[in-house]
Amino acid sequence: MSDAKISGVLLAGGQGRRMGGVDKGLVELHGRPMAAHVLERLAPQVDELLINANQNAERYAEFGHPVFPDEIGGFAGPLAGLHAALTRAHHPLVVTVPCDSPFLPEDLVARLHDSLQAAGADLAVAKTFDQAHPVFCLCRREVLSHLTAFLESGGRKIDAWYSTLNIVEVCFDDQEAAFRNINTREDLSRES
Ligand SMILES: Nc1nc2c(ncn2[C@@H]2O[C@H](COP(=O)(O)OP(=O)(O)OP(=O)(O)O)[C@@H](O)[C@H]2O)c(=O)[nH]1
Ligand SMILES: [Mg+2]
Description:
Helix content: 25-40%
Oligomer: single chain
CATH topology: Spore Coat Polysaccharide Biosynthesis Protein SpsA, Chain A
Distance between the termini: 39 Å
Shape: globular
Bound molecules: guanosine-5'-triphosphate, magnesium ion
Structural class: alpha/beta
């Protein structure tokens, strides 16, 4: 297994429309912002942490890690966040996680990394049973030029971009509950 260092990126650049247009990463669960839960789980798994957010930069900065917005504006979706992340990351491997999945696996990065290496893939993405979790991915930083070209040609859909890459899907069937995400007020109250 390679010992390449890994940058971890919290994707918090969405508009939270299903929750009424809130900045979901700052919404509190058990008395703390969801971003805090996610960062705490991810920190021991990576060599640096970065935060991608398009609003409330000062509040995200309080977590103590660099904060940056999408370079491609207009809330173009998570690929715009990944694009910005790949331009900012210092390490050769980059893992992304969403801001609304506070229970992410503690061995997420180790398992994505093992599969990426074993398959010699460009990108490893989590799945549970037949459900893909496309924003939980580990990729090589050098896919940036490929992603930039995809975005410049008007591409926005994460699945469409993945279909042009050498990817490996990594099975987390044993931890399905760790991927539950919070999209609505009802989802939030179910966890509270
Ligand atoms: N950087 C960036 N991240 C995004 C964007 N849209 C969604 N995301 C992130 O992608 C992940 C999954 O997105 P969703 O669950 O759809 O979150 P959302 O878009 O804020 O919420 P909805 O508006 O209800 O769809 C979350 O971590 C979001 O922060 C975007 O335009 N830019
Ligand atoms: Mg969305």
